[in-house]
Amino acid sequence: MKIKLTFWKIVFLVIMGLGLYSTFVRYFYGLGAISNMTDQFPWGLWIGFDCLCGVMLAAGGFCIVGAVYLFNVERLHSVVRPAVLTAFLGYLLFIVGLLFDLGRPWYIWHQLIYMNPHSVMFEVGMCVMAYTTVLFFEFLPNVLEKFNLTTPIKWIKKIYPVLIILGILLSTLHQSSLGSLYLIMPSKLHPFWYTPALPFLFFGSAIAVGLAMTIFESTQSAKAFGRHLELPVLVELGGALLVALWVNALLRFEDYFHRGMLGQIVKPSYEAYFLWLELALAFVIPITMLSFKKVRLSPQGLYLASIFTVLGFITNRLNIALTGFETYVGHHYLPKWTEFSVTLMIIAMGFALFGVAVKYLPIFPEEEHAVQPRLQTETGPVVATPVLGHAGD
Amino acid sequence: MSKALLYDATMCIGCKQCEGACAQQNKLPYDDKVAAESVQSAHKYTVVMTKDDKFMRRLCMHCEHPACASVCPVGAFHKTAAGPVVYDVWKCIGCRYCMVACAFNQPKYEWQSLNPRVRKCIMCPDRIAAGKPTACAEICPTGATKFGERDDLIKEAQDRISQNPSTYLPRIYGLHEVGGTSVLILSGVNVEDYGYPASARIGETPMPEYTGRVMEKIPDFIPVWSLVLGGIYWVSHRRDEVAAAEAEQKNGSAR
Which domains does chain A have, with CATH numbers? Predict the structure, then answer.
């Protein structure tokens, strides 16, 4: 265990070192020096991964908050805090990623004064700003609790219904609008990925990945921090994930069917290989796995299925952002190593900050009063929970 | 009325004086090396290309409904009443959405700069305001690039085609493409062979409409979705409240 820890620490330091070097190159030599982006490929890995995938990977926050507080699914209560933490970190890191990608990041605040309501990017920007603020207040009780500041927690509890509804509204808007960004490029994006349904597909995939990420991070935290794994919660999430994957798969099928693309997607081509990879990882493998009850009830099975789902939808978004433009542009885009190193640094920061937060803040329920009593109430008479009794939990 | 440029490729002799005049007007470097470059870039807003001894010029099309202006989150681009699509550099945050969205790939970027700007032809708005033609039209020795009112130029282009049907392909590129542009092209060869996007591919729908169809629903979506979410919240928590009240009543009567 000790050796493993040291190994990961070394990996972390190497990633951070290379990332800092790339950061230096980015701000002292410019985007041309650090990236393989060109006039033909103005959006590269950072938009594809850090932005499109980053926001999707942080979707667990609004999925779980929605399930627990909006639909009152008490059983998932124990994963609210880690999901909100992941979302909060995810959005902060998304903004860090933007500071690398924007050509003039020091003018990022222009968004607030030179508004263009016709721009999808403007809408995404405003929603992300507002939602990050909402997440800050959803996350704040963790810190306040740590220092026993009960009065401000009471205030936050009072506005919690508003925060929840606002958070879900903003998430619905910007998760789908990330897809709308590409609606203006019908002549450029490959027809495998260009569809008027993009906003719906982006919202659908955000929910599937939000659920999968919650399974992934719960299992991962249980391993890393020696926590007790709450299998019933994971099983519940796994069932929801299976439904979400089916809905996504049907949406994709409907879309290809209506656009008469079914004949084309089965024909081998450069794009088809990437599409098949995406469909296999995002749908075929996890849906097959989760269809077996044995897998749905096993922590390893759920963990693996969630990893496939996440990888599948990451492939999907990278295909939209990168693969889908290659034929139009006429050449391939492969990110420079410095682009990768910035992305890796941001991911590493995410893992590290998650670890620090879990260590110092009451993110996971205390071991002694774990979920057992809560689960027992399920079979007994419905025990009323006062509205917002767990606000901020 | 809105101004436009008519470029007649059959009249172009490939002298590249438009390139030089453009560079001078926009204070860009121009020498033999730049002249030899056959692609547009942050330091070359317009280019005259040669293929089989036929010439073709490229520049920003100055769309009637520009995608760049519609996608820019800070509104750094706008179409002026006079016709040019201009760029306010001080607003720009450098997201490069304009570059990705432009169907003609006109916005170029200063990739090497530490405070990069988007660069493209802005159709000499200062000269137009002063009542002068664009620098490229003024210098053109053969009249291949002609400046004027868009409506007049369309009529003239149609006349040229009908008078010399053997010289011209029977179409004015830019008349209807993406809802019409302020740069119109006449030629005897396919503009597509010189890198212009095919008319069928980009269509006649103004690009901003593709996102507009979704964006226009948002003002209605926000209150409706908020109400739905609020309703779900109320219903699912009301159930608890009722259960709590009932439980209390039961307990009370039992006592």
Answer: 41-359 (1.20.1630.10)
Could B115 and A104 be called an inter-chain contact, meaning their C-beta atoms sit closer than 8 Å? yes
Count Cβ atoms within 10 A of the Cβ of residue B229 and give its class: 0-12 exposed, 13-18 middle, 19 or more buried: buried
Q: What is the DSSP letter of A67?
A: I
B221: containing domain: 217-254
pLDDT in tens, B58-88: 999 999 999 999 999 999 999 999 999 999 9
- Kindly state whether residue B124 falls inside one of the protein's structural domains: yes
What total number of domains does chain B contain? 2
**What confidence category does residue A392 fall into, taking pLDDT thresholds of 50, 70 and 90?**
very low
Provide the 10 A C-beta neighbour count for residue B52. Answer: 6
- Reported as a single tens digit per residue, the pLDDT across A109-125 is 999 999 999 999 999 99
Q: How many CB pairs under 8 A join A and B?
A: 172
Tokens of A202: 């982006």
Which residue in the block uniquely carries the two structure tokens 């070097």? A21
Instruction: Decide if B93 and A105 are in contact by the 8 Å CB cutoff.
Output: yes
CA atoms within 13 A on the CB side of B101: 29
Q: Tell me the pTM.
A: 0.90
pLDDT at position A9 over 80: yes
Asked if residue B200 and residue B76 are part of one domain, the reply reads yes
Q: Of B10, B158, B42, whose CA–CA distance to B108 is shortest?
A: B42
Nearest beta carbon to residue A116 from set B72, B114, B236 = B72
Encoded amino acid at A194, one letter: Y
Kindly state whether residues B10 and B100 are assigned to the same domain: yes
> CA-to-CA distance for B121 and B136, rounded, in angstroms?
11
CA of B43, closest CA in chain A: separation in Å?
A: 12
Question: Do residue B193 and residue B80 come from a single domain?
Answer: yes
Same domain, B14 and B115: yes
DSSP sequence for A310-358: HHHHHHHHHIIIIIHHHHHHTS-----HHHHHHHHHHHHHHHHHHHHHH
Of A222 and B17, the one with more pLDDT = B17
* DSSP code, position B78: E
A377 Cβ under 8 Å from any chain B Cβ: no
Minimal Cα–Cα distance from A221 to chain B, Å?
A: 30
**Chain B residues close to A39, C-beta within 8 Å:** 40-42, 99, 105, 108-109, 111
- How far apart are the C-alpha atoms of A229 and A226, rounded to whole Å? 9
Tokens 């220092």 found at: A147
Q: Which two tokens stand for residue B78?
A: 């706008």
User: Per-residue pLDDT for A371 more than 50?
Assistant: no
A70 Cα to chain B: minimum distance (Å) = 5
